TrEMBL record:
This is Uncharacterized protein. It comes from Sinomonas atrocyanea. The keyword Isomerase does not apply. It holds the Pfam family Transgly. In the C-terminal section; belongs to the transpeptidase family.
Amino acid sequence: MARVLRAAAVLGRLVAFVVVSVLCGALAAGLFMPVAAAAWGATNGTVQFFDSLPSELTVTPPARVTSIVAADGSPIASLFSENRTPVGLNAISPDVKNAVVAIEDYRFYEHGGVDTTGILRAVIANLRGDRQGASTLTQQYVANVLKENLIAQGQDPTVVLNGQKDLGDKLREMKLAIALETKYSKDEILAGYLNLVFFNPNAYGIQAASRYFFSVDAKDLTLPQAALLAGVVNGPSVYDPTAHPEASVQRRNLVLDAMLKHGYVTQKQHDDAAKSPLKLKVSPPHQGCAYAAQAQYFCDYVLHQVLNDPTYGKTPDDRYAAVMRDGLTISTTLDPRLQGPAQAQVDATAGANPDKWGTALVTVQPGTGKILAMAQNTRMLPGQGLGFVTSYNFNVDRTDAHGNDIGGAGGFQPGSSAKPLTLTAWLNEGKTTDEKVNAAQRRYPLNHPWHDTCAKVTGAYDDTTARPPWNTAPDLQNDEPNWYRPMSVREGIYQSINTATFASAAGLSDFCDIQRATDALGMHDGEGGGKKLDMSTLGNLLGGMNVSPLTMASAYATFAADGTYCTPRSITSVKDAQGTKIGGQSKDCREGAVKPDVAKAVTNVLQDVLTKGSGYNIKDNAGKTITLGVPDAAKTGTNQYNSETWLVGYTRGLSTASYFGEALHNPEDHLGRNVYVNGRFWPAIDGAYIAGPQWAYYMQKAVGLYNHGAFDAPPPSLISPDKKK
């Protein structure tokens, strides 16, 4: 019986040998003797089947790393689904190339894509009971390309990775390999393979593997390092040196044996490398804005701009795939010379911050709309900084950060920093800054005769009128009791007098001019999505609405640019992996959004804020007023709870919004009164007290890098009533 079984086994192996021999003959004929193959194929279905297989292989560019970079090219963040950085063959150590060829396909430079000799050798070895593969490097490259193509198409590649390939699959792979060899050189195929092959979930391709395992570039790999990586590709999980160091060293030495056998190294080189200890220097790659080298939240804002722009794909999924796979280079407007000081300042403002006060700075360049810096005193992940962790971007609209379910904070109440809107409307009507208004008036009842042509004014300040939920509506209040008197519009602004702003609004020929000024300055609701601010609501004259710091900085930049409003922009260019520009944000400015002379007159008033008004209280810890030493203008702002405080100011070249307050939207529960901030007690926080010094310290470091010359003088006709035409 045993003899019968042995005979059957021998017969089975013989049949298998014959079948594979026929297959090899078909392959050889198909590659070397097409005429003979055609004649032979008339009586043999194998060749007919082989000839019917597709021979064109579309080599989809492999997934690679997208880079977000600052204006000077310095890195901000990397994004990828596969950590891969393709490099040319000349940027790969020769030891790597030799090691891979020696262990995977030592006849690589001799065959035409399919090694028939290798197939016969493998069949004989398998018949003897020794498992041996026969795929050439070209075939392995084909298999990896097919897998990568499936991933790029959003399909499941596991059948290619783990499925059992039948004879048809192998034949198709072989014919594609043969076709590939007619189209590409051996070096091109080898380079393609080394850039595509999987080493580790953290490393795709030889460059990423070199950086991950050894923290060196592929061109700088030593012989033992090269041999180790060449060994990993045969079984990335089995020979992972971080998980299985002994197995990886054994495999490395097997590679070195192959290199010695095929003449790639000398005996001494082999022996020295085989004795070399495993010296890993692992550098795990980090991807995403949470791991940004700088400006985490600016990074998130930029990413949102790309993912919502149809330029980069028809659907959100298409755009996400482009970012995560296409190796884009997204160049931004961020100026690291400003970003560094901005981040340092917001971190210093609130210190360890156990009460979770939020601080933010954002700078826009007047006349261009470029966002130059964007910082806040939080981090996206625990353990990254001061312990205040949040995904909310304090500086932008709710819809202007990646993931609208988190996104931007949605803006904050700007308080008195909204008063220049009314001033702009006042000057737009040809009125003057030094004209007096009755700031003694405190009652504005429901039936007050506002001059409005576009919308009915809503709200009232009148303690004689009942208004739920209070028994009476309060009269209009100022922060201090001694300012209920006639005064100039100018004084009302620089001293931040509420009753003067209302008297100015009451003196307009059309209350709706405030809405027009607001729209012209690009002011909008912090929710984003194009939602307008409703300036027919009286409380909004004093900053009762929510507005983002970026919106405020852009509005004030309009004054600095003599009335030219520019839409804020963060992306200068987007290039594909080949370096071709495929997108970016163009300069989008409206000259005369505000009349130039009106903008100059507003600036003239806001300069007084810093020299004799509310901004004069911007002091250091020693009580000394902090000044920039260059022409500047600004306005403070504080909400009714002292929980949202601002200073928005500018020079000719920089417009910066500085914010300090309750950034997570509990303004009524987190009052800015009788609180300690950074070890200092504050009976009540005002815009000049914390947001002000934050602005001034930062701007001191930034102003010299951009235009800081004198502002243009306004016409006298907008200053003095005596000079009116």
